[in-house]
Write a structure and sequence with these properties.
endonuclease, 15 strands, binds adenosine-5'-diphosphate, mismatched DNA binding, Heat Shock Protein 90, alpha+beta, 340 residues, Ribosomal Protein S5, domain 2, binds magnesium ion, 11 helices, DNA damage, ATP-dependent DNA damage sensor activity, 5-stranded mixed sheet
Length: 340
C-alpha cells in the first residue's frame, strides 16, 4: 500500500465546507422540506404551503405567513452559522425554536439553486434574493417568506444518483410534513405536487389533528396516554397490541415538540408491550414528551433527530409506565365527548 503524498494543511473554501456539511443535513428532498418547514414554524407561521415538482427533486417551494426577514438581512440568512435564534451558550441551553445552528439554508444553497422572497410587516414590499447571483429584486407577496429550492444535487451528481423514484421521494416529503403536522395542530399545512393538492391538514385541536393525521383506524384502536411526573410529562396515544403491524411505520415520538428517533424511548415503549406483543410485530404510537429544556440536549446531531437526556433512566421508566397504564385502560372507560 502506497500512501498518498502529504499535502500542506489548508483551510477549505467556504463553498466546500458547506457542501460537506450539507452531507449531514440534506440527504434527500424530504430533508429540505423538513428544514424549510422548521424555519416557517420558527417564524410564527399559521399557514404553511409546500409545493413540489418531481417529488421535490426538481423543485421545492415552502411558503409561509410568518414574520418574514427584513430585506437587508436576506443575504445573512444564507450564510453559514448565521442565525437569529440564539446569541449565546445560555440561549442554546434553553432553546425553544426548531433551528439554532444557522446551517440549513447555507447547506441547501450549496447543493441546489435557492432563492428567498420575504416581506416583513413594516417592509414596503417583498424582496427576493437569488442565492447564486446575489441579486436582490422587488417581489410581489404578502407578509411572510417563500423559499424556493430547485434542482437538488445538480452540482453533486454522485449524491443525486442516490435519490429514489419521484413517487418515493414525494412520499418522504409528505411524511416530513406529517411529522410537523402531528405536533402543530395550530398551524394549517398543505402539500401540492405539480399543481395538485395531495395533502391538507386544517387547523384543529390536538385530538382532532391526531385523528386527521393518523386516521380514524388508529384512534379507534389506540388508548390515550397521559402521565405527569413533574419534570416529565407524556401525552399521546398508544395502539392496542391487536393493531400492531409488520412495519414500524406509525411510530411518532416528540420531545418538546421536536420529532425524534430515540433508541431509549423506543426501548421503553417496546418493554411496555413486552408481554402482549409477539412475533416482531410493531406497535403504533404517537407520544408527546415534555421535559424541562435543561434536562435534554438537542444539539447532538445536525438534524437534531437524536437527543440526549440528563436522566435517561427516568425517561425510559416514564415512557414504559405511561404506555403500560394506557394499555391497561379498557376502551369503554375512556372519556369520549358526547355529541349533543
Ligand atoms: P436556523 O434555523 O438554525 O437559524 P437556517 O439556515 O435554517 O438556520 O436559517 C437562517 C436564518 O434565516 C434564521 O435564523 C432566520 O432568521 C431566517 N429564516 C429562514 N427561514 C425563515 C422563514 N421562513 N421566515 C423567517 N425567517 C427565516
Ligand atoms: Mg433552520
Amino acid at each position: 500500500l502506497s500512501a498518498a503524498p502529504r499535502r500542506p494543511i489548508r483551510e477549505l473554501p467556504d463553498e466546500l465546507v458547506s457542501q460537506i456539511a450539507a452531507g449531514e443535513v440534506v440527504e434527500r428532498p424530504a430533508s429540505v422540506v423538513r428544514e424549510l418547514v422548521d424555519n416557517a414554524l420558527d417564524a410564527g407561521s399559521t399557514e404553511i404551503a409546500v409545493k413540489l415538482v418531481a417529488g421535490g427533486i426538481r423543485a421545492i417551494v415552502v411558503e409561509d405567513d410568518g414574520h418574514g426577514i427584513p430585506s437587508d438581512e436576506l443575504p445573512m440568512a444564507l450564510k453559514r452559522h448565521a442565525t437569529s435564534k440564539i446569541g449565546s451558550l445560555v440561549d442554546l441551553e434553553s432553546v425553544s425554536t426548531m433551528g439554532f445552528r444557522g446551517e440549513a439554508l447555507a447547506a441547501i444553497s450549496s447543493v441546489a439553486e435557492v432563492s428567498i422572497a420575504s416581506r416583513t410587516a413594516d417592509g414596503p414590499h417583498a424582496q427576493r434574493l437569488d442565492a447564486r447571483s446575489g441579486e436582490l429584486a422587488p417581489f410581489a407577496r404578502g407578509v411572510g417568506t417563500s423559499v424556493e429550492v430547485r434542482e437538488l444535487f445538480f452540482n453533486t451528481p454522485a449524491r443525486r444518483k442516490f435519490l429514489k423514484s419521484e413517487a418515493t421521494e414525494l412520499a418522504h416529503c409528505v411524511e416530513a410534513v406529517r411529522r410537523h403536522a402531528l405536533t402543530r395542530p395550530d398551524v394549517s399545512f398543505t402539500v401540492w405536487h405539480e399543481g395538485k393538492l395531495v395533502q391538507q391538514w386544517r387547523r384543529a385541536d390536538h385530538d382532532g389533528r391526531m385523528r386527521d393525521v393518523l386516521g380514524e383506524e388508529f384512534i379507534e384502536h389506540s388508548r390515550a396516554v397521559s402521565i405527569d411526573m413533574g419534570v416529565l410529562r407524556i401525552i399521546g396515544r398508544a395502539g392496542t397490541p391487536e393493531s400492531a403491524r409488520a412495519r414500524a411505520d406509525q411510530q411518532y415520538v416528540y420531545v418538546n415538540g421536536r420529532f425524534v428517533r430515540d433508541k431509549l424511548i423506543a426501548h421503553g415503549v417496546r418493554s411496555a408491550y413486552e408481554d402482549v406483543l409477539h412475533g416482531g410485530r410493531q406497535p403504533c404510537y404517537a407520544l408527546f414528551i415534555e421535559i424541562a429544556p435543561d434536562r435534554v440536549d438537542v444539539n447532538v446531531h445536525p438534524t437534531k433527530i437524536e437527543v440526549r437526556f440528563r436522566e435517561s433512566r427516568e425517561v425510559h421508566q416514564g415512557v414504559k409506565r405511561a404506555v403500560e397504564a394506557a394499555l391497561a385502560i379498557p376502551k369503554a372507560t375512556e372519556f369520549t365527548p358526547v355529541a349533543s
